[in-house]
Design a protein that fits this description.
The protein has two domains: about 240 residues, Growth Hormone, Chain: A (Up-down Bundle); about 35 residues. Helices cover about 75% and strands about 0% of the residues. It is globular and about 65 Å long. One of its GO terms (cellular component) is membrane.
Length: about 270
């Protein structure tokens, strides 16, 4: 501990936080922004002959919208358990590329069944993103600093809700280009950036403070001090056991936050996906 104190001497913690925000938050926000656009753009595609081209009834369209959340809920927890083994950089990059490919391929569907299949896959691959990003941020920020940074994710979701409609309006005017309807171009053009972003994520997103290319040795020492304040200095304090999972699922505060999150998500998803 004394060695870390000596090594981190002269580093301003407030400036360190600003540096973390500068390098991490824009990328994290961009990832979540595009994930939100790609999951709700089916509502915008509906305005550009999606239902007519695929001969969908209103109820079939609503099923296609809702089926996304079935696999999304089912795969959230397993996806974040996988994150521990594959490292955040690899797993988040994999998730981003995967949903980008699925979202892009939605522009090529030709039946109700293929649309349903894509929505099911999209829910599965996007499931681990939001909780995964929350876990990832804990590698750099203390619990007292997290609220603001998680709030940035909700800001990006709100921006996506507004930006998605504007993008769809412009892309929708490509109706007829290459013989494809406007809704197909919406899926393709809004999906491709996610694939590119996933590749960028693989190279730009550090796994933790120890591998953060933008930190100096002194700043890494301070980050280690911050980590020890939260977790202690033993490895066992960071390991997850079965009893930790049981404790999480039986904690009333977790369920209270679930209810609150339900209200937030209802507002975020309700209008964009109509």
């Amino acid at each position: 501990m004394d060695e870390l104190l000596a090594a981190s001497r002269g580093v301003d913690e407030k400036k360190l936080l600003k540096k973390l925000d500068l390098y991490l938050i824009p990328l994290v926000m961009s990832i979540y922004l595009f994930s939100f656009i790609d999951r709700v753009n089916v509502g915008n595609a509906r305005l550009y002959k999606l239902e007519a081209d695929l001969s969908l009834s209103s109820s079939q369209f609503q099923v296609a919208v809702s089926i996304f959340f079935v696999t999304y809920m089912f795969f959230e927890v397993p996806s974040n358990l996988v994150l521990k083994f594959f490292t955040p950089r690899r797993w988040i990059a994999f998730i981003t590329v995967s949903w980008g490919l699925v979202a892009t391929l939605m522009g090529l569907v030709n039946s109700y069944g293929s649309l349903i299949a894509c929505r099911i896959l999209l829910g599965a691959v996007e499931a681990g993103l939001f909780p995964g990003l929350n876990i990832y941020l804990t590698f750099f920020y203390t619990k007292h600093e997290l609220a603001v940074r998680v709030g940035y994710l909700f800001v990006s979701a709100a921006i996506a809700g507004a930006l998605g409609g504007i993008l769809a309006y412009g892309i929708g005017h490509m109706d007829g280009v290459q013989g494809m309807s406007g809704w197909r171009w919406i899926f393709i053009i809004e999906g491709i950036p996610s694939v590119v972003l996933g590749v960028i994520t693989y190279f730009a997103l550090p796994n933790d403070a120890g591998t953060a290319y933008f930190l100096t040795d002194a700043e890494r020492a301070l980050m280690e001090l911050r980590r020890r304040r939260v977790y202690g200095s033993t490895k066992s304090s960071e390991q997850m056991e079965r009893r930790d999972l049981v404790k999480a699922f039986t904690d009333w505060k977790v369920w209270a936050f679930c209810v609150a999150q339900f209200g937030v998500d209802t507002m975020l998803y309700g209008k964009p996906m109509e």
